[in-house]
Write a structure and sequence with these properties.
globular
């Protein structure tokens, strides 16, 4: 490419290093001290840090764009204001940046992890994930976990099989945003916790909008502690997270606020995610995932030819990458 760099580009890395040395916490990951990428880059960007480059690669990926048509709670919602998986991702990224900045951690790394954490999610939200896991187990003795699939997306599936070649820190945070393994960085730990902060509160908002809940049905004690409005609850949770983490030197919540958030999560599973009103949508999601998976197992010649892996992996990659409406079209 033509050499259009000038003084700003020449000084960019040095300025970022100087700013981070004076501003970031000793616990933060430095932008130019990454553990590297799986493959060496031919040319580094002179106006973006490695983590900014991770962020941009995720945002410009096809998988990221498909999140706008993937379920958060409601399958193919008709209203304009219900969250999709894309909106959940953006809300998680925004809150994660806020927490990272307040704790003087690396905002760009936290943002990149947040933007990539759900790339591997199946259609139809967690119901779709469970359905895909079940049919994959029955037919091939394998499991499906969306965090593992998210890592596969960025390492293998994007860019025609080349992957996005993200930094090790971003890949680690994407893989460990859920599951038994803790993230290796505090930035990854932020996303792991903020993911719940975001979806619990915006799912309450959507459930109220859909008439599945009324404000009076929300648990009194938890609402009294966290706040009656979604914005107030998020504000309470973020302030608590920042203050408790600053004191602990780790990413934690206070006992009372953390317990209240988990109680709200349990309430949402009982009343909304697994509640009777959602049963019809769950049945639709399970039926669709099973039908599509079985179809492509029997018609493997119709799968994209460039997908790597054995039959079970190729079908899993294709089905998990579908949007809700694309999967529904196969019914």
């Amino acid at each position: 490419m033509p050499d259009v760099a000038g003084r700003v580009a020449d000084e960019f890395e040095a300025r970022v290093r100087g700013h981070e040395e004076s501003w970031l916490s000793p616990l933060a990951v430095r932008s130019y001290e990454t553990r590297g990428r799986a493959h060496e880059e031919q040319e580094e960007c002179r106006l973006r840090t490695p983590f900014q480059r991770d962020r941009d690669r995720i945002v410009h990926s096809k998988t990221f764009r498909r999140l706008k048509h993937k379920t958060q709670v409601f399958i193919d919602p008709k209203g304009d204001h219900y969250r999709t998986r894309l909106m959940h991702t953006l809300e998680t990224a925004g809150i994660s940046r806020t927490v990272a900045r307040a704790l003087r951690l690396n905002e760009d790394l936290a943002e990149a992890i947040a933007l990539g954490h759900d790339l591997g999610h199946a259609p139809f939200g967690h119901t779709g994930e469970e359905a895909l896991d079940q049919v994959l187990t029955e037919r091939f003795g394998r499991r499906f976990r969306h965090n593992e699939q998210s890592l596969r997306v960025v390492e293998v599936l994007e860019r025609g099989g080349r992957g996005l070649n993200l930094t090790q820190e971003a890949r680690d945070g994407i893989l460990t945003h859920t599951g038994a393994t803790e993230p290796a960085t505090l930035e990854g730990k932020i996303v792991r916790l903020v993911d719940r902060v975001a979806y619990i509160n915006h799912d309450i908002d959507d459930a109220l909008r859909a008439g599945l809940l009324t404000p009076s049905e929300l648990p009194d004690e938890e609402i009294a502690l966290l706040g009656e409005r979604g914005s107030r609850r998020i504000d309470t949770l973020v302030h608590d997270l920042v203050e408790a983490s600053a004191e602990a030197g780790d990413i934690v919540q206070s006992d009372s606020v953390g317990r209240a958030m988990l109680n709200l999560r349990a309430f949402m599973f009982e009343r909304v995610y697994l509640g009777p009103e959602a049963q019809a949508q769950r049945e639709l999601a399970v039926e669709t995932v099973r039908h599509v998976f079985d179809y492509f197992v029997e018609h493997a010649d119709e799968l994209p030819p460039d997908r790597p892996g054995d039959l079970s992996q190729r079908v899993t990659d294709y089905v998990s990458g579908m949007t809700d409406r694309f999967a529904l079209a196969w019914r």
